[in-house]
User: Fold this.
Amino acid sequence: MSVLINGKELAQKIRLGLKEEVEVLTKQGINPKLAVIMVGSDKASEVYVRNKSKACNEIGIAFEEFLLDENIKMEDLLSLIKGLNARDDINGILLQSPIPKHLDIRQAFNAIDYKKDVDGFHPVNVGKLAIGEEGFVSCTPAGVMKMLEEYNINVEGKRAVVIGRSNIVGKPLSQLLLNANATVTICHSRTQNIKEITKQADILVAALGKPKFVTADMVKEGAVVIDVGINRNEEGKLVGDVDFENVEKLASYITPVPGGVGPMTVAMLMANVVKSAKLK
Ligand code: GUN
Assistant:
């Protein structure tokens, strides 16, 4: 049996701490504010944005939403971003992905002022992470590191295996684990004999988006298993990338889905907005 890493509880604790911090900042005349841009209507994005808005409300961060027509032109999206970059009252800008296919999301992310890039997607922040400089770190990977820290799971010298190489999770998380002195291996869709690699992991992270991909035979006894997956099964239930029922029998620590990494992402976003306001 493993220890359950309770992301929901930890995220709540972080949000309470941020609320107190924002109260102090407000008294000093600093009012953190997040701008969120959503293009078109995507059901999942609507839920994510609602959660972000609720979290801002609870903490005392101002929130401004920009809902753009799905047929908007790239130049109009860029001009909105430029306007928000120039606005003194806004500390964080988040472009909710996905956006319609006719738009270039990379160009849009790159247009966001890196000092307001609370998602940590701008090349300057990605580069800062790579060389170990302070910047904005992508929220989900930052949340995973926070979980490990809060549960006193030391990663130094440990073998960490990350399954998934996305720009949002797999790559930045591998970088963070490396910066924390873990020995890091990244597995992906072309990796051969994946089981031989995952079996060696002291810390195993699943971030590939396939329900029950990580089965018990892929996990070393006593490993720490972090499940970043958010998938819907046939019954519409939220499930992770790990076969939780069987893997939890041999892991030392494991994150559930829901209530694991998910709530940490929003908490770290809020932390990034507060950090941006303080830096300014
Ligand atoms: N879509 C799903 N997750 C995220 C996220 O963390 N940031 C942005 N901008 N879009 C997302």
